Amino acid sequence: MKTLVLVLVLTIAVAMAQQHMNAFGETYTLIPPSNIVEINGTNFTIPYNAEWGNITSIQINTIAKTLVVKIQSTSEGNLTITLPTKFINAFQSAALEPSYITLSRSYEQSTAHFVVTKNNHGIYYNEVDTADNRTLTIPYHMGNNTIEIEGTYMIPEFGSMTYVILLVSVFSIIAISKYHRVWQM
Question: Has residue 106 got a pLDDT over 50?
Fold first, then answer.
């Protein structure tokens, strides 16, 4: 019975740790002019261009499955960013998408729209899909802009700390079970 309670407590601990992964460094920053980010030993090239503006940073949050692009611009322009589908993608769940997104392009069988917001407001954008990439063209205004791109999938799907916590939990259960058997004899 004690072992069952321990297993339940450790399972809850793993679930809580997964929810709070940002504290363990699952956020990456891409600083221009670089367009390469390394995540778990894999390099991803993310080409981007800000027409009439400067990109100051791109924050990548693998838990929230988002890219947050900070732009300072002297005029209205467009952000063009190419996202590798092995890095981030959005899969079909049209029922959950806001109405401003469903109007921006026609659906394909397995892909859906990214959720794109500018300064916390949903915006229309253009998208061109290929087998390996999705290129988004997102308009922005003069001044400081924060553009957030949210997908439904991002590498790594599960954070590295989840595996560490799971291993510690399994070894703890084994050790306590052995200790409990010796103690009862």
Answer: no
